[in-house]
């Protein structure tokens, strides 16, 4: 069974070790450079990104199992390193009468176009994240927008730079556009009035600023009338989040249960014991879909004042820059971690003038020793049979030779320590060498 976690791509976890994440290994990941300006919303203007040649194609093997060990996906054999690749994300809750027929239409349009990713449709709408040369990737969006149902779809675009960010195309009917325990097919997703009130990035920013001003005046950690709710996973929060947002005690979005246990007040639930009628809940996630889904559940639970960040963090970073945001944005494709400059380079410069840099650097800690991590990017355990995705300080990278634990350092199938933003290649590349023992960081 394939889970579709987080609305973008599913992501595995280890139930017994909540702070750790599995991530498949057979992908090369390279330096990610700030892009030129992209318009990612209503207009589909596109500026050619900086393309770095001579680097291997990322063979993304992302996990498709939430709650289990990593499932490796086949690597891509394409060689499109010379083209301008982008990653496109969009979703729309809209009634589709015959989703199978719709799938066939989409497949037919994409025939002969170089699109990799996950595009799922059902009676409730469409959820898509894919990579491709800009020409093909944008043609698909334009084609979709010709359909009245999807003409106002909010599209997020970011540069891929190293070719495809997904291993292959999966375009099909899927019973749930977002994987959540209990399913979502019964939820009134198509009716916007049943969801949280969407706030444009500028409105969201104003609200956060107002809350923080009150905050400064009252010396409390956050205005009591507000809860800033990060509707993502803990490991995403670790590398970046809005100021004042608590780390969600969740390893996989599908098991999120904030606000659902009125009888017991649990310490890990930011919505426990709050006034459902008076408290304003500001919800955010990467691209908006998780909030749209989860807010319908919270509404059913009686929460009255629900607000969500329209288009999620990626849209916010593009429109407002990193104001009130700390760190990077975790993404569910081979790029893993994007600095805010990916979305709005100029705004990052402005923000750094007004904000002490130490604040943005000191948020993540090493999963092994707990010391601060300045590199806001997860790495895979060097033991291919573990392959855990984890945050690690440079000392522990050296001491544990790229492994996540002492146990893994003595495993039979060890890969070399990776430097920088590289991702591991296929196992056979390392199989016949003794690189692990020879390497130093
Ligand atoms: Zn450490
Ligand atoms: Zn390990």
From TrEMBL:
<dbReference type="InterPro" id="IPR001763">
    <property type="entry name" value="Rhodanese-like_dom"/>
</dbReference>
<feature type="domain" description="Rhodanese">
    <location>
        <begin position="222"/>
        <end position="325"/>
    </location>
</feature>
<dbReference type="InterPro" id="IPR020936">
    <property type="entry name" value="TrhO"/>
</dbReference>
<dbReference type="InterPro" id="IPR036873">
    <property type="entry name" value="Rhodanese-like_dom_sf"/>
</dbReference>
<dbReference type="Pfam" id="PF17773">
    <property type="entry name" value="UPF0176_N"/>
</dbReference>
<dbReference type="InterPro" id="IPR040503">
    <property type="entry name" value="TRHO_N"/>
</dbReference>
<dbReference type="InterPro" id="IPR022111">
    <property type="entry name" value="Rhodanese_C"/>
</dbReference>
<dbReference type="Pfam" id="PF12368">
    <property type="entry name" value="Rhodanese_C"/>
</dbReference>
<dbReference type="Pfam" id="PF00581">
    <property type="entry name" value="Rhodanese"/>
</dbReference>
<protein>
    <submittedName>
        <fullName>Rhodanese-like domain-containing protein 8 chloroplastic isoform X1</fullName>
    </submittedName>
</protein>
